[in-house]
Amino acid sequence: MLQLADINPVVRSAGKAAFEPGYDGSMKSEPLMDHDLHLAYRGRGAIVIGGCRYIMEIGDVVTVFPGESFHVEVEGERPFSRYFIHFDFTGDKTESLQAPVLEDDIPWPRHVRLMSDSRARDLCADIVLRVQNYAASDVSHIIAAGHMQALLGIVAENYTGKHTDEGDTYSKCRKNILQSERFIQANYRKNLTLAEIAGAVGLSVDYFGRAFKALFGRTPLDYLTNHRLSEAKRLMVETDLSISEIARRTGYDDIHYFSYIFKRREGITPSQFISRLAIEE
User: Fold this and answer.
1) What percent of the chain is helix, strand and coil (3-state, nearest 5)?
2) Greatest distance between any 2 Cα atoms in the chain
3) pLDDT the model gives residue 251
4) Residue 166 above 80 pLDDT?
């Protein structure tokens, strides 16, 4: 029986797909040879597995298991969009068709609603990009596997409701620091300063900076930059917005500075990033 500690995922393929209202893919259903994880990021739809409908809204995750067939349906009058990742929980051929059990031998969940989908969507976008680069770089396989392991951890954590508690020296203000994370995520489009973030959660600048880094492993402003670029990459994957509009929506009024920061962090320019996203819809 595969345990959580045995997870060493292999990502086979990944992409994103958008479906217009009224879409019914029931005629395209075929049994899977691997696992298929779906994450909804726009609209409302359903994954139908063996006659059972699993309604998906933004932040919902559904896993289809080997040997099962499924199809997608759109609910409502808006398009429905999702990421999909074909993978195995382990590269061991004798266990590749297995899904791990959670604590108390609970089976791997079919349907999970994430409390926050920001990190999960960021990981999906990166996995899609890495898969597109498989032929050019063996390193992409390793990075995609690492992102997939993190994504599976998020799914398991949300399903069990058990979140880790670091127990560090700043544990007394952990609630404040977590509030600051939400503050950054809600206000990242603004020209935030360290003092403004610290003041929003009632902590001094110096103490806040040390406590935030102890909890998240990076400074608040570095976290802000990473979050902005994660949102930018997600918009590049999920929309057809121009680079200048994406820069504006993620807190950068100067497109040249945005491109500079993006290349420094990602190793490629925004235009190069978009050019690699030739993904079959």
Assistant:
1) 45, 20, 35
2) 60
3) 95
4) no
- Can you give the CATH number for the domain in which 251 is found? 1.10.10.60
With b for 16 or more beta-carbon neighbours within 10 A and e for fewer, the 255-268 pattern comes to beebbebbeeebee
Number of domains the chain is built from: 2
Rounded-to-integer distance, Cα 56 and Cα 80, Å? 9
Extract the tokens encoding 268.
């490629």
Amino acid at 127: I
* Residues 150 and 199 placed together within one structural domain of the fold: no
Provide the token pair at 40: 């909804």
Among candidate residues 122, 120, 98, 96, the one with its CA nearest the CA of residue 108: 98
Alpha-carbon distances, residue 91 vs 66, 85, 203 (angstroms): 14, 15, 46
The whole-chain average pLDDT of the chain stands at: 87
Global pTM exceeds 0.90: no
277 vs 169, which has greater pLDDT? 277
Alpha helical stretches, state H, the chain:
118-132, 139-160, 174-187, 194-200, 205-216, 220-238, 243-249, 255-266, 270-275
How many DSSP H helices and E strands does the chain contain? Answer: 9, 8
The number of CA neighbours under 13 Å toward the Cβ of 22 is: 0
Render pLDDT for 187-216 as a digit per residue (tens, 0 to 9). Answer: 999 999 999 999 999 989 988 998 888 777
Same domain for 141 and 181, yes or no, is no
Domain of 75 in residue numbering reads as 4-160
Rounded percentage of the chain residues whose pLDDT exceeds 70: 93
Size of the chain, expressed as the number of residues it contains: 281
Position 281 scores a pLDDT of 38
Residues 46 and 124 in one domain: yes
